[in-house]
């Protein structure tokens, strides 16, 4: 079957071109077209391609051309997404920032702040909570998460990492581990209910977040893009309980530290997670006609 590949870039000197793929519109899948294009231009490996119809509708890799109204001598539009980087690698870089930054501010506090002082219980607990959170995220990235999209544009790694390296890294660490919260300072005083209550809520939220990630992982067999409706702990009320539990974990850190830097990070992170949750919630309802109607996007009974 002959297919015309046109570029979305009007300045391209490689396109349009005619690609011949073995089979018919009824049997050829979009993935086969991607493979044929990558074979002709190795620079445009499959993850770097976006194949669409003329009206910019992205073609489904697992569907045949006929299912997407592309017939003999039809035209498919190609966009170069640029150099790609694996999502797993992106997450490792993002979460690695706070794991490097917090120990520097905590253990080199005399050098950074120019004075010697003893860390308060609040500072010590916060340090371990932050470190355990991001160690958990790294381990989940390696052993739990299965990605429906394997890569993202390489340049995005800098934008994505800035959120973690600066807001939950430098900004949070500098203001929480400073001498103004050191042992003996009024601002650092926490009674046992305040201190251990915050830690307990944080631990419950982190474990709950892990459980929801495991539920999502078990929905998708290895090496597939299978999608299904998640059920179980957390999913009875919201579509994205993993985001809700993460919000609760960081809220516990906020109330333990009372630092504006923790609240800032939590507000920004929660805002982004809510945007993702709304999008996923809409996709679930669109894709599954029997999707539970009582669920909200992220926050039970509210939104």
Automatic annotation (TrEMBL):
Keyword Signal listed: no
Gene Ontology terms describing biological process: very long-chain fatty acid biosynthetic process
Keywords (A to Z) from UniProt: Endoplasmic reticulum, Fatty acid biosynthesis, Fatty acid metabolism, Lipid biosynthesis, Lipid metabolism, Membrane, NADP, Oxidoreductase, Transmembrane, Transmembrane helix
A UniProt-annotated Pfam family: TECR_N
EC assignment: 1.3.1.93
Localisation per UniProt entry: Endoplasmic reticulum membrane
Catalytic activity: a very-long-chain 2,3-saturated fatty acyl-CoA + NADP(+) = a very-long-chain (2E)-enoyl-CoA + NADPH + H(+)
Pathways per UniProt: Lipid metabolism; fatty acid biosynthesis
Residue span, 3-oxo-5-alpha-steroid 4-dehydrogenase C-terminal domain: 151-302
GO MF entries: very-long-chain enoyl-CoA reductase activity
Chief place of localization: endoplasmic reticulum
GO CC annotation: endoplasmic reticulum membrane
Membrane spanning stretches: 162-181, 193-216, 247-276
Membrane topology listed for this record: Multi-pass membrane protein
Residues covered by the TECR-like N-terminal domain: 31-80
Domain of life: Eukaryota
Root EC class: oxidoreductase
Free-text function comment from the UniProt entry: Catalyzes the last of the four reactions of the long-chain fatty acids elongation cycle. This endoplasmic reticulum-bound enzymatic process, allows the addition of 2 carbons to the chain of long- and very long-chain fatty acids/VLCFAs per cycle. This enzyme reduces the trans-2,3-enoyl-CoA fatty acid intermediate to an acyl-CoA that can be further elongated by entering a new cycle of elongation. Thereby, it participates in the production of VLCFAs of different chain lengths that are involved in multiple biological processes as precursors of membrane lipids and lipid mediators.
Family that this chain belongs to: Belongs to the steroid 5-alpha reductase family.
Protein name: very-long-chain enoyl-CoA reductase
Organism: Mucor saturninus
């Amino acid at each position: 079957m002959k297919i015309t590949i046109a570029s979305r870039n009007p300045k391209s000197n490689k396109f349009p071109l005619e690609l011949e793929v073995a089979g018919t519109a009824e049997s050829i899948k979009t993935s086969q077209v991607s493979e044929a294009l990558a074979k002709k231009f190795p620079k445009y490996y499959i993850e770097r391609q976006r194949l669409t119809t003329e009206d910019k509708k992205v073609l489904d890799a697992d569907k045949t051309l006929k299912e997407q109204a592309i017939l003999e001598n039809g035209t498919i539009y190609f966009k170069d997404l640029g150099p790609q980087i694996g999502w797993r690698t992106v997450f490792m870089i993002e979460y690695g920032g706070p794991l490097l930054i917090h120990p520097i501010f905590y253990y080199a506090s005399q050098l950074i702040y120019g004075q010697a002082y003893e860390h308060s219980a609040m500072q010590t607990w916060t340090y371990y909570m932050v470190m355990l959170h991001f160690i958990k995220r790294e381990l989940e990235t390696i052993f739990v998460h299965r990605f429906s999209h394997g890569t993202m544009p390489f340049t995005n790694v800098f934008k994505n990492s800035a959120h973690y390296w600066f807001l939950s890294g430098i900004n949070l660490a500098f203001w929480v581990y400073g001498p103004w919260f050191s042992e003996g300072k009024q601002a650092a005083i926490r009674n046992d209910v305040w201190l251990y209550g915050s830690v307990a809520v944080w631990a419950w939220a982190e474990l709950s977040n892990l459980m929801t990630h495991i539920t999502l992982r078990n929905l998708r067999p290895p090496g597939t893009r299978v999608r299904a409706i998640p059920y179980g702990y957390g999913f009875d009320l919201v579509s994205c309980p993993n985001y809700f539990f993460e919000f609760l974990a960081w809220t516990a850190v906020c109330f333990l530290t009372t630092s504006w830097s923790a609240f800032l990070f939590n507000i920004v992170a929660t805002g982004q997670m809510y945007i993702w949750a709304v999008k996923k919630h809409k996709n679930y309802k669109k894709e599954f006609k029997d999707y539970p109607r009582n669920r909200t996007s992220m926050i039970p009974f509210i939104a």
